[in-house]
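Record type: ASSEMBLY
Status: queued
Input:
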Amino acid sequence: MISRFLSAAALVLAFAAPGHAQDADAPIQQLLQEHSEIIQDSSRRTIGPAIDAIRDSGLPEAQLVLERWAAREMWLDEETGLFVYAEEIDRDTLRIFDFATAEEIGEVSDENYDQLKPNSGIRGMIGSALVKFQLSDPDPAARIDALDSLARNGNESHLPVLRASIEDETDPEIKTRKERLERLLTISFGATPEARIEAMDAFRGDLSVDVRAKLNPILATRTSAGTALPDGVNIARELEPGEDLTEVEAYELLVSEGLAPARLTDDMQRRTLQDNIDGDNVGGVPVASLSSPEARDRAYAALVEAGLAEAAATNAEVAQAIDDHVFYETYLEPNQAVTDAAEDVLNSIELSVSLNQFFDLSLDALSLASIYFLAAIGLAITFGVMRVINMAHGEFIMMGAYTGYVIQQIIPNYTVSILVAIPVAFAVTFGAGVAMERLVIRHLYSRPLETLLATFGISIALQQLAKNIFGTQARPLTSPGWLDGAWILNDVVSISYIRIAIFVLALCFLGIFLFIMKKTRLGLETRAVTQNPKMAASMGINPDKVNMMTFGLGSGIAGIAGVAIGLYAKVTSELGADYIVQSFMTVVVGGVGNIWGTLLGATMIGFLQKGIEWFNPSNTLAAQTYMIVFIIIFIQFRPRGIIALKGRAAGD
Amino acid sequence: MSRTFLVRNPSILVFLALLAVFTIAVTLMSEAFGASLISTSFIKTLGKTLCLCLVALAMDLVWGYCGILSLGHFAFFGLGGYMIGMWLMYARTELIVAESMSNAAIPPTDQEVVDAIGTQIFGVVGSSDFPPIWAFAHSLPLQLLMVLLVPGLLALVFGWLAFRSRVTGVYLSILTQAMTLALSLYLFQNESGLRGNNGLSGLQNLPGVTASQAVVSVWFLWASALALAIGYVVCAWVVSGKFGSVVRGIRDDEARVRFLGYSVEGYKLFIFTFTAIIAAIAGALYYPQAGIINPGEIAPIASIYLAVWVAIGGRGRLYGAVIGAALVSLISTWFTGGLVPSLPLGFYTVDWVDWWLVLLGLSFVLVTLFAPKGIGGLVDIVTGRLTPNRHGADYGPDKGSLMEEEGRK
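Status: finished
Output:
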């Protein structure tokens, strides 16, 4: 007996040796005690005043209490009736803390403590109450986090808290965000229609997605039918059967609302007939003859007469029923002023969205145009200036891209490897171009169609060679980190940095091409040889050498284009083949032998393709098809391209 | 007339005799009618090769004789295949549907049958309605007419547009290539109504025919051989005589023929459309033997291969096109089928399945460079027809003038 008492006392001593005595008179504890009963009751219906009291107490510890409570870490000392928060050390031991000081009281057995377990409803309410503290948290990052979470799932209860926190906000940027969020929430949860309309008006022309996300639900509608337009509902519009909805849809609506009997479908008719087969006849009609619709109708009519089937609505009845009813869309939002305002604001937003979309599309088209230009500029030299059809041009682009890939395997730093890859790709394809010119094309200058075929042979050989070396799967050519991401102007207009880089590269190439052709000796000689090889030769120009250099230059540029294209498209052995037809189109449409024509051709094709895609966004295949058809027709009217050479330079 | 025509073109008789001997020999070695020395699948390959010879004939007519390097004739070939494929697929599905519906308690109405066929055919692209281009698919005669009309009209319209605006040479080649690309991209869409990239399949089963594939394959071999024979004679007839002279004149110098008062556009348009129809017929015979057609078959590369065959065989002579198509396509099958033993080089083993295209591409370059007459040029050596040695400086200001070496003779 004594020993048991002693051991119990020792246990009590061991646990209840508080390093710190709890202050029962602290204001926060007083407040909790005041609401002790409803807190313990823990019912969603009654808990409101307690949470509000804690939130509005103005006590610095209020946030701590709410956080611990929501986290199910608030415990009640059954002896003293005081509230503490605690960490569970193991199954029966707690480390308890005082709310007032946030200091540890000690480790105790959980025997005398009762855990408060708020249900999810109450935790939601506590969470809402906590928003107040998060919104005025001294740490700006925490405030931004709170705003982000409110923007995602804010509700009615957050509105007053948010409003209250605006005034004390010190950071002007966060203050603007708070004000904006307050208006957004007002649109959905504002107390009066006037307040909601006022909040909407502030967003006139705003491009952000979140505004549209708030406004669109207000305009959600539901289609219904009735004998007359009902009063007291917010009707969006009346629907005219045959115009706004098909007669079939209209009748289905009537059937689904129980306003009309179902129409007899062919399927139902067949099933009914099947169920009523009597020997070899259905309703007196032989089964074998039921392969015609008229026989089926006769058999069904006989069944109806015999009372074996339900009479179905005839076409006349259907038309009558549709005539007798009105069809309309109602807004789920009952207040008409609100829906009108929302529609008005959405219209203004739509307008600026479409303007911005147009701008965005133009940027897209420009970047596509610069890709085509890059792919075609090498061709503009070999085909445009030298009149040599190089079907292997696409494979030179592919070689450039694979060169970039190989360099990246050797040099791990992406920035350095791209900078190295560009000159190396130029060198590799320059060499390949010169070799091809020397070995093949030189012998075929007088036979252009055969140049086409011979270079095509080289093209399939190179393609298969690439497949044998690198395999059929796509190889990545990774762009350096500083080219990742996009330049975002607003929620509608954005363009990735890599596309900007390609655009800049295309402009550089244009400059380089113009410089070489107009300002260097090679350019002068090239133009001379192009116009009249014999005369040029008699002036001391070596046409063979000039042809070789020019062809090498065109091929080398194709290699650099390959690096650029590889950065945003996957590198496969078919990379070049994908571009070859478009590249030739670009040169032909622009006008052979003129770099400005190539530029115009690329711009036209790029804008055209994006424009067609805009009408039919889901289908890029169709866009390409229509674009090619357009080009074929375009060539009818300007067979020599946009900028046609005149006089002797035009040749043939 | 016929006598003189044949006498003037002895190669026709030689060709027809060889074709007849080939067909009879294959028949006698087939599983169905003879000694079972050749497998059914190889007979199909031979039959398909005959169809490819026919389309190569068309290509030779338009390129080798008229000088239009069309990179679109395989598109017409594919369109012909699609047109016959529509009927084959419709009729066969109709039989299957009718059979499955014959067990129903109530006989189906015509509309129900059509709906069921639609669901069967278009289920794979998530649709069940027949697009308007299938309007004639139920009738064999109408659809056979479509085999001729659809590619013919396409060629007529395209050719009229292109020749009218005097698009010539490489520009025309690129334009025809663009047309081919547009067509294949269009067919790749599900909205085209021809089952998108699934294409048409099961074409090897002739509806209502119970004979085994071994027998059917020989039938198709005969049909292909007959078509090739007729095609060869008709093509030879077209290019002989005055018409053929004008066509060759257009190839050699279009402007001069125009100045002589001939309607160059009319001649070109006729040849272009006529060869498109021949290509379509070849396609209509080819795809029932292949069993499946999809838009990939129409891709621009196929038309370029066609040009490769004709170039290797020898342009400007009809038997050259046939030799080229037969030889290259059969060797191609042989190499890509993995039948050729690998070539060990010690450090690397050349697997011909991977390296065949490299070999073909390079040999093509070599033929273009060193043997512009192709394999058919070998015949000239036998018959003693040699080209003049045109090296050396020219005597006059024009391309056609005599060269130094010729002048010395």
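Annotation: The first helix of chain A runs from residue 2 to 15.
Annotation: Residues 8-19 of chain A have pLDDT under 50 and may be disordered.
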